[in-house]
From TrEMBL:
One of its GO terms (molecular function) is RNA binding. Transmembrane segments: none annotated. It comes from the Eukaryota. This is Pseudouridine synthase II N-terminal domain-containing protein. Residues 97-235 form the Pseudouridine synthase II N-terminal domain.
Length: 332
């Protein structure tokens, strides 16, 4: 951890952060890039700096200036004050899988360096995402959020938790009827039975409509309430609209006050780094922590295994070397 190029080579993999509310995902990426460039530039990055560190290992003692440094160690053309910082934010290629909008918070799976090759496998797996969505009865706005323009006000004292539970069960049942259609199989076929027996019936493509696999009440204190929603292919805008539609179903109105993603597949809040931990050393540790979440048995679902095997067979037929990292099959 005392040589910049070594740290730079270690920044390759998938890590997980917690995106705060009110911040765009692109701003999160820029923040991480600036922090990585700052942390690596603090360490010795040029050969002469390493030699000077060996001569003066105590960082509390001021290093010699350019004029007093031994000429055998460096020349002016090799000095950091001439060359400038070795790393800039754009040197770090940071990407994320599924973004969260500005008003949402929660788990955000990111990659740095060559870790981007795993993002396609994560996206192809179509992981189940879990949200805690909070709402408030009695209001209706043009964008389903508290900051929108108020369109309507209504009463809500007639709403009971038992009634809300029934509406949530109806929403869940309504979506489950279309799971096999989105998976591309007939509902009364043998393939549908095998998919249902294997686990979650995932959509065949990522561009299918959102599918809600679970919706239940976790908090109820009029006019406020909270739902835990398990879904695939959803957007935060869709979840906010769902709160609005639930309010209408209960003969009232509702706005969405919070959308918080607590799980993205195998990535949970326990793996997510807070903003104060977005440093080079913490990200390197998080990459090592998340490495066991990228094994083939966790990356490949039933649908993605079929697609991956088909692509590999096609590559072998064409005489090409199959890309294992692309499908998450590379155990290294």
């Amino acid at each position: 951890m005392t040589w910049g190029p070594t740290l730079y080579r270690m920044l390759n993999g998938v890590f997980c952060v917690y995106k705060p509310k009110g911040v765009h995902c692109n701003s999160v990426v820029e923040h991480i890039q600036r922090n990585l460039a700052r942390d690596l530039n603090v360490q010795p990055c040029y050969p002469y700096e390493r030699k000077m560190r060996e001569i003066n290992p105590n960082p509390n003692i001021k290093m010699p200036s350019v004029a007093t440094e031994p000429k055998s160690l460096t020349t002016l053309s090799d000095h950091k004050l001439v060359l400038g910082e070795r790393y800039i934010p754009s040197d770090f290629r940071v990407h994320f899988v599924t973004k969260l909008n500005k008003h949402s918070s929660g788990v955000l799976v990111c990659s740095v360096g060559s870790g981007r090759e795993y993002l396609s496998a994560i996206k192809m797996a179509r992981y189940l995402r879990v949200y805690h969505v909070r709402g408030k009865f009695g209001w209706a706005t043009d964008n389903f959020s508290p900051k929108g323009k108020i369109r309507n006000r209504s009463t809500y004292h007639h709403i009971k938790k038992s009634i809300l539970d029934k509406v949530c069960a109806t929403v869940q049942a309504g979506h489950q009827r279309f799971m096999f259609d989105y998976a591309g199989v007939a509902q009364d076929s043998q393939e549908a039975y095998e998919l249902a027996a294997a686990g979650i019936v995932r959509p065949e493509h990522s561009d299918t409509p959102p599918v809600i696999y679970g919706c239940h009440v976790i908090d109820f204190n009029l006019p406020d309430f909270a739902l835990e929603i398990h879904s695939i292919n959803e957007t935060q805008k869709y979840l906010m609209k769902l709160i609005h539609e639930i309010g209408l179903e209960l003969r009232s109105t509702a706005i969405c006050t919070q959308v918080r993603r607590i799980r993205y597949g195998h990535f949970t809040l326990e793996h997510a780094l807070l903003c104060k931990h977005w440093t080079a050393q913490e990200i390197i540790r998080n990459i090592a922590t998340c490495r066991h979440l990228l094994t083939p048995n966790k990356l490949l679902t039933d649908m993605s295994i079929t697609k991956a095997e088909g692509d590999i067979v096609q590559q072998l037929t064409d005489g090409q070397k199959p890309s294992l990292i692309k499908h998450g099959l590379d155990k290294s």
